[in-house]
């Protein structure tokens, strides 16, 4: 049996900016967030996604690339397609009087749950999330449940809408390679390349441990799919660039050409929430246990707290186990700095566990960050 390995020794430096952006968006799409979490390399995948998103923002900085009427319209259509499926499934799961249909809906709801926030993600990441969930929903094992809820046509059209947006996105990206963003791209591209190599190293390591020791068939299948798909993208990218430069095909024994040393740059700061705690009277042994109505502190890094309309409306939210968001009253959000803020915890919210989510529009693009540990309200 052949041992697989992501061939990450590609000379990325010869790619045009558009080629570089397109490649990394496609590579990221091969590792959905829920798959990375399940397989154990969530952190390097998160760091890679952050680097890809920073490069996307830089590449598109001088254009209303994603705000043109046709792209906004296409994005709205695919959002609605996803919401239709998710809402129909929720309605059957929560209110249907037919036990069989309710059970079918609950099975589908479990598949959809990791994708609930897709429409709030950056455009390329949303595409990858929807691709993944539609592939799972269209699996033969779920065909009967989809048919029972009369969602077969809706699912096909939703996938078509997502594919249509991605095709438009890729087309626009490829026409943007002469944009005057070279200086910043020279800084960001090596960071994206290194983040990819760290992710590839993690995937290769998990694959080898499983291959030599664990021997889990499902894990091997999942990792093999990622490795093979990534290698296919890397091979096609290398072939495209070499053909354009007149270098011919790369032989299997060719050594990678050394990349030029990049100008040293400060390490990028990963956007994250680093702490949530009760300001006074909290439990030092259990800082995530917060009393309702009390002043609550939040510490974060890598972004500025800013709502879509420039206010703090719909910026900090508490997400329950049904993915319902209770937004913090913006009038209670105070002492906002570049790294922290505080707010009054909702006094009448049901006791239990919640995720703390920040949805900020720092830089004009939506950024969603969640605190990795649940808090407990009492």
| Helix and strand run | HHHHHHHHHHEEEEEEEEE
Total domains: 3
Radius of gyration: 22 Å
Instruction: Tell me the β content.
Output: 5-15%
Structural class: alpha+beta
Q: What is the β-strand count?
A: 9
Mean pLDDT: 84
- Number of separate helices: 10
The outline comes out as globular
Major sheet details: 6 strands, mixed
| Unreliably modeled segments | 177-183, 251-255
Properties at a glance:
globular, 49% helix, 378 residues, 10 helices, Coagulation Factor XIII, Chain A, domain 1, three-stranded antiparallel β-sheet
How is the secondary structure organized here?
Elements: H1 17-29, H2 33-39, H3 42-59, H4 69-95, H5 99-112, H6 123-137, H7 143-148, H8 152-174, H9 182-214, H10 217-244, E1 272-278, E2 289-290, E3 295-301, E4 316-319, E5 325-327, E6 340-344, E7 352-360, E8 367-370, E9 375-377
Helix pairs in contact: 1-3, 1-6, 1-10, 2-3, 3-9, 4-5, 4-8, 6-8, 9-10
Q: Describe it for me?
A:
This protein is an alpha+beta fold. It has 3 domains: 12-63 and 176-244; 65-174; 272-377, Distorted Sandwich (Coagulation Factor XIII, Chain A, domain 1). The protein is 49% helix and 12% strand. The chain has helices at 17-29, 33-39, 42-59, 69-95, 99-112, 123-137, 143-148, 152-174, 182-214, 217-244; strands at residues 272-278, 289-290, 295-301, 316-319, 325-327, 340-344, 352-360, 367-370, 375-377. Strands 2, 4, 5, 7, 8 and 9 form a 6-stranded mixed sheet that branches. The protein has a 3-stranded antiparallel sheet with strand order 1-3-6, with no helix packed on it. Strand 7 and strand 8 (367-370) form a beta hairpin. Helix 2 (33-39) runs antiparallel to helix 3, helix 4 packs across helix 5 and helix 4 runs antiparallel to helix 8 (152-174). 31% of the residues are buried. Residues 177-183 and 251-255 have low confidence and may be disordered.
